[in-house]
Design brief:
By secondary structure, this protein is an alpha+beta fold. It contains 8 helices and 10 strands. It is elongated and about 65 Å long.
């Protein structure tokens, strides 16, 4: 049974609901677009608005960093394709920044409702600032929500993406305030045999069996 049959928004660990939608780069199907790559699916409230313009420009300027992390960007708002195209052109003319990723024209709110981006307690006709981190298996790994009046932090989005990819690759976890290049922590043992093994190893970064700091290649 999928999320829509359950009547709830998708959660961490769920398979990201698939969809086909019109974008500024033509029709796009999520499962095809994200094949063998990560996807950052993010919504903004409206075109031709100040905070959204700064955010979309931020994604565009830092797209090479996402590319280097095998990650595709996919924007969305409840605006028409014509509004999107006019906004993209206007921002490029005024600032020199081109929104170099597809933006979904979700005028009927199909995708926004599917992903819980329309939250009536805030607004019923625009999407809040949602960010979905979707891995190459199309599993939702991290979700961020911001209200209409608070812009996102691009450094945090990239940091979280790098943390997800590193922990997958090295089978570790990232502690408080982790930044790329900093120490990570080993997973805590789940059996007494594992506890004994941790204590016997006496690794330099061990505080106790449940907290072992280490460095890994990134």
């Amino acid at each position: 049974m999928d999320n829509q049959e359950l009547g709830r928004m998708p959660l961490l660990g769920d398979l990201a609901p698939d969809f086909t939608a019109k974008t500024t780069e033509g029709w796009l199907t999520l499962s095809e677009y994200g094949k063998d790559s990560w996807v950052i699916l993010f919504s903004h409230p409206a075109d031709f608005t100040p905070v959204c313009t700064t955010e979309m420009s931020g994604f565009a300027k830092r797209k090479p960093e996402f590319d280097a992390l095998n990650t595709k960007l996919l924007g969305l708002s409840i605006d028409s394709i014509f509004a999107h195209l006019a906004w993209v052109r206007n921002v490029e003319e005024r600032t020199g920044v081109r929104f170099n990723f597809p933006i979904i024209a979700d005028i009927k709110m199909d995708v926004a409702n599917m992903y819980g981006m329309v939250q009536p307690g805030v607004a019923s006709t625009v999407a809040v600032r949602a960010v979905y981190f979707i891995d190459p298996k199309r599993v939702i790994r991290l979700i961020l929500y911001y209200p209409l009046n608070v812009g996102r932090n691009m450094d945090e989005i990239l940091r979280a993406l790098k943390a997800l990819q590193l922990t997958d690759r090295a089978q570790v976890a990232t502690p408080l305030d982790w930044q790329p290049g900093c120490e990570v922590v080993e997973h805590a043992p789940e059996t007494m045999e594992g506890v004994d093994a941790k204590l016997a190893a006496k690794k330099p970064g061990m505080v106790d069996f449940y907290l072992v700091k280490t460095k890994v290649d990134e």
